[in-house]
Amino acid sequence: MTQRASIWRDLALVMVLTVLSAVVFVATADLPVPRWEPIGPAALPRAIAVLLLLLSSLLLVRRLLGLGGAVAEREALGYVPRYGRAAALVAVMAAGAAAMNLGWLSYRPMAFLAVVLGGLIVCGFDRRHLLSLALMGLVLALGIHFLLTSVLITRLP
User: Does residue 96 come out as left (phi exceeding 0), alpha (psi in the -120 to 50 range) or beta?
Assistant: First the structure.
């Protein structure tokens, strides 16, 4: 891949992340404001949106200053981008959100499946990681559910 194509791909990523962050801010505008708690249900999505904006801004600044384009060096070291895996990971997360929104799954099974399927995608479907991914999915699904429902007092599907 040429340096110019890499720059355009990174700029496209910056645009996508900026639009995604804007969508999150618009979507969380209708969430209710808590009466007694200092943070409400919109806090976590907005914090993630701000983090996405900061990271995409950092990528944009690096590209404008010409600091992030070591494509030839990465290719010489044998780096092979896995765009199919990245797209599959995004598809799993979108399908999980859609399943919760449509009422097909509640949060805990969706989070468990997302961690296991996402981990398998990242690991290249290596079955040796299945047990550790299942344990991690179970702990994360139950732990985050507890955190969101008991500590942050958020209703989940």
Answer: alpha
- CA–CA separation, 143 vs 39, rounded Å? 19
Question: Which of the two residues, 91 and 156, has the higher pLDDT score?
Answer: 91
- Please, are residues 78 and 25 in contact by the beta-carbon 8 Å criterion? no
Please tell me which residue, 83 or 26, carries the higher pLDDT value: 26
Taking alpha carbons only, the member of 134, 136, 128, 125 closest to residue 85 is 125
pTM: 0.56
Give, as one character, the DSSP assignment of residue 32.
P
At residue 68 the predicted structure's pLDDT band, cuts being 50, 70 and 90, is low
* Torsion-angle region of 75 (φ positive above 0: left; ψ -120 to 50: alpha; else: beta): alpha
The 3-state DSSP class for residue 128 equals helix
Q: What is the chain's length?
A: 157
10 Å Cβ neighbour count for 56?
A: 20
